[in-house]
Structure to design on (47 residues):
């Protein structure tokens, strides 16, 4: 995938403290077919 842009979705903690990422979206183009691609990667929070 050729990456064009990415965005991150966050979930709030208590009073805006301890904010964690829920997932990251990658927008791009397939190498072979040149078709648009969107990949969603769910973030596992390590504690």
């Amino acid at each position: 995938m050729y990456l064009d842009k990415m965005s991150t979705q966050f979930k709030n903690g208590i009073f805006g403290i301890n904010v964690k990422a829920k997932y990251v979206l990658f927008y791009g183009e397939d190498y072979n077919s040149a078709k648009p691609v969107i990949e969603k990667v769910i973030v596992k929070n390590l504690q």
